[in-house]
Write a structure and sequence with these properties.
Layout (H helix, E strand, L loop, with lengths): L31 H24 L6 H9 L3 H16 L3 H22 L2 H12 L8 H16 L6 H31 L1 E4 L10 H13 L6 E4 L5 H6 L3 H12 L10 H17 L5 H6 L7 H34 L9 H12 L13 H16 L1 E5 L13 E7 L5 E10 L10 E6 L2 E3 L2 E3 L1 E9 L12 H18 L20 H7 L5 H4 L14 H9 L5 H20 L8 H12 L14 H4 L9 H19 L4 H13 L5 H9 L7 H5 L22
Parallel strand pairs: 5-9
Antiparallel strand pairs: 1-2, 3-4, 4-5, 6-9, 7-8
């Protein structure tokens, strides 16, 4: 048991300084029992450091208070960075059992720091005298962030208020972990066994090969096994068996909404407690609390954005759905299109409209080749070099994980380590795709250490007969997550809480979404898009068709993201006392914003972004950042995809992280404030006024 293992570094490798090159984490051979005592030791060390700050007889200044506080939890950050990444990407029942306990310990520790009156007194003394200090812009930003963090964590509350806020924070931590684990377990719990291959009519052989391999691994040779992880998108887009499409759709959209892993009550309790937290801190609701520290600032600004999106997207999205419905009626006599029908007939209509079989595209997107192209792209854009490390040089937590060294081409300096983990592991890995770090850029024992970065996805593993073949959207996901990784890898700065992706949340998606833009450019595709059997480069006419169909369902997809943003804001601006149920709140948003009534479980029970992730009252940021990335990429379309001057300005933007205001970074990059209509023009929903262009003409019935 963990309690029997003391905190001696000889017994617990997590507590010993890394012996690996560059301080890389020792990820192999880690036992679950190491984590709890290592976290406890990290908390103890941090408490001693905090106590030393408070008892320092010297007057409070930036170095002995703000900087000292920044680095007070170095051991804890290192250990928790390892635990957090493994708990998300390679978990098990033992890790899940201690995860709630560890989160509770961390929340209590955070409360102890942020509600410490003596510590806040020193922080406030530095803040109040900041005008007389000769602080660098980076130091001033850290001071502002630190001071505001104390205020937003209850430093000004009385004893009763602090006690109440502590209880709220601790309960929210527990609920967040339970919510996340329920989603993972519910996803893994569903399987569908197919006995007759006829039931899989229409599904490509590459997908059936995967289902057959799943069945073989489960001891059912000769059958096919469908899971919800990786996401069963191919069922919806290709399966002619409507009953099977419906069953998988209902299962997928009902994740964690019933039975043993039902998150419904947890959702309502999270919303109630977050509202209570906001009220304690003097805000009208949780959205007001969150947005006070965002670029958007107010709920009105966010709702204005979402309402404008709804007005622009919804009519075009409704027209798009009608086109798909008309097509389904003409081709198969389907008179009442359902959500599990739309992907199939949308795909068929797209293929007919643009004379393109989307399965013809996948053979050009072998994951390993895509990753080669991704690295080439990043090297060309940012003047860096990415090299795979020798196997075993940096031990990993699972054989699927690869490690890469990143160097600056100009100086030759090493600027980061990148860990890549792309394959699904149902029951062990969270759904979706993400970036995290084992270490953020910043000072460590007086030395500025580079970032150690982690990308995780959930793609099908290669089978005996074929490699992992991606869709175009999958390729965009790979580039997207590496955009987050580049934000961390290119970081400069001394203070880890300000470097990399530690920016205002509605700016965090801009560097990632921007990278997606290069995936449809022939110049870029030629570096990696080669047929996995013949080696032939992707033909120019195929690339043209890909680009021609780029805005085929732009309004539908834009409305979908807007709906998610509206749902998020509804949860966090509504008085929980007035919410009758999860389904009732969702249905109200659906009636206003979406195109189909709810026909299965509510999505909120598995909407991890806003209940167990960092996007509560912040999901709008995807669309907010998309406006920014559309505007920035226009500079590359104008100047050249790899124009050195433009790319160097972009690298500067990435390198600054949270050390400067996001709007200042954008203006330095583009030379002006954002064009609010840049995204709509890119999507073909508004004319390009700068060039005098109108939206592209409809290809038969292709565009709404």
């Amino acid at each position: 048991m963990a309690a029997s293992l003391d905190n001696n570094s000889q017994n617990n490798p997590l507590l010993a300084p890394s012996k690996l090159p560059h301080g890389a984490p020792q990820l192999d051979g880690l036992k679950t029992e190491y984590f709890m005592p290592a976290i406890e030791a990290g908390i103890d060390a941090a408490k001693k450091n905090i106590d030393a700050i408070k008892k320092n007889p010297a007057a409070a200044n930036f170095e002995n208070t703000i900087a000292a506080l920044e680095f007070s939890d170095a051991l804890l950050s290192r250990v928790n960075g390892i635990f957090g990444n493994i708990a998300a990407a390679n978990s098990n029942d033992d890790i899940r059992e201690i995860e709630t306990k560890i989160e509770d310990m961390l929340v209590k520790h955070g409360n102890d720091i942020m509600m410490d009156a003596g510590l806040f007194k020193r922080v406030k003394a530095v803040y109040d005298s900041r005008a007389a200090m000769l602080l660098t812009p980076e130091q001033n930003m850290l001071l502002e962030k630190t001071y505001k963090s104390f205020l937003r964590s209850g430093a000004l509350l009385d004893a009763a208020g602090k006690k109440e806020l502590r209880a709220v924070n601790e309960k929210l931590s527990e609920l967040g972990v339970t919510y996340k684990n329920n989603v993972v377990k519910s996803t893994a719990a569903y399987t569908k066994v197919i006995d007759d291959e006829k039931d899989l009519a229409g599904i490509p052989d590459r997908v059936k090969n995967i289902y057959r391999q799943f069945a073989e691994e489960a001891g059912m040779p000769g059958k096919w096994l469908i899971k919800l992880s990786p996401p069963p998108t191919d069922i919806f887009e290709y399966c002619e068996n409507r009953a099977l499409r419906e069953e998988i759709y209902r299962a997928n959209t009902s994740t964690a909404s019933q039975g043993e892993f039902d998150n419904s009550a947890i959702v309502l309790e999270i919303v109630r407690l977050r509202r209570k937290e906001a009220k304690l801190l003097g805000y009208a609701d949780y959205a007001a609390f969150i947005l006070d520290d965002r670029m958007a600032k107010t709920s009105k600004t966010v709702m204005d954005l979402l309402e404008k999106n709804t007005r622009t997207y919804k009519p075009a999205a409704e027209a798009f759905v009608k086109q798909v419905q008309d097509f389904a009626r003409q081709t198969d006599g389907l008179t009442d299109i359902k959500p599990w029908d739309l992907p199939l007939y949308s795909r068929k209509l797209k293929e007919k409209t643009f004379d393109l079989n989307l399965e013809e595209v996948r053979p050009y997107f072998d994951l390993e080749k895509v990753l080669d192209g991704l690295r080439t792209h990043a090297e060309n854009l940012f003047n860096i070099k990415i090299t795979e490390a020798a196997k075993g040089q940096y031990p990993v937590y699972h054989p699927d994980v690869k490690v890469f060294e990143v160097h600056d081409k100009k100086t030759g300096d090493m600027i980061g380590l990148f860990y890549a983990d792309y394959y699904a592991r149902p029951g062990a890995k969270n759904n979706g795709a993400w970036m995290n770090t084992f270490r953020n850029r910043g000072l460590e024992d007086g030395v500025n250490q580079f970032s150690i970065v982690h990308n995780v996805c959930n793609f099908d593993k290669p089978t005996k007969n074929q490699p992992t073949l991606l869709s175009l959207r999958d390729v965009e996901t790979v580039f997207h997550e590496f955009g987050h990784a580049l934000h961390a890898l290119l970081a400069q700065g001394n203070y880890p809480s300000l470097t990399g992706a530690n920016v205002k949340w509605d700016f965090v998606e801009m560097p990632s979404q921007l990278q997606e833009n290069w995936t449809k450019e022939k110049e870029v595709l030629d570096t990696f898009a080669a047929h996995y059997k013949t080696g032939q480069k992707i033909p120019a006419e195929l690339v043209k068709k890909i680009n021609d169909m780029g805005n085929f369902d732009a309004a539908y997809q834009g409305l979908r993201q807007t709906f998610f943003g509206q749902l998020d804001m509804k949860w966090y601006t509504t008085d929980p006392a007035s919410i009758k149920s999860v389904t009732a709140l969702e249905d109200g948003v659906i009636a206003k914003t979406w195109l189909f009534p709810r026909v299965a479980g509510p999505m909120s029970t598995s909407f991890g972004h806003i209940f167990s992730g960092g996007y509560a009252a912040g999901y709008y940021s995807y669309k907010w950042a998309e406006v920014l990335d559309a505007d920035i990429f226009a500079q590359f379309k104008k100047n050249g995809l790899y124009d050195r001057a433009t790319a160097d300005r972009l690298r500067k933007l990435y390198s600054m992280g949270g050390t400067a205001d996001p709007m200042e970074l954008f203006v330095a990059m583009v030379g002006r404030k954002p064009d609010p209509d840049a995204l709509f023009r890119r999507e073909g929903l508004l004319p390009d006024v700068k060039k005098g262009h109108k939206p592209a003409a409809k290809h038969k019935s292709s565009k709404p």
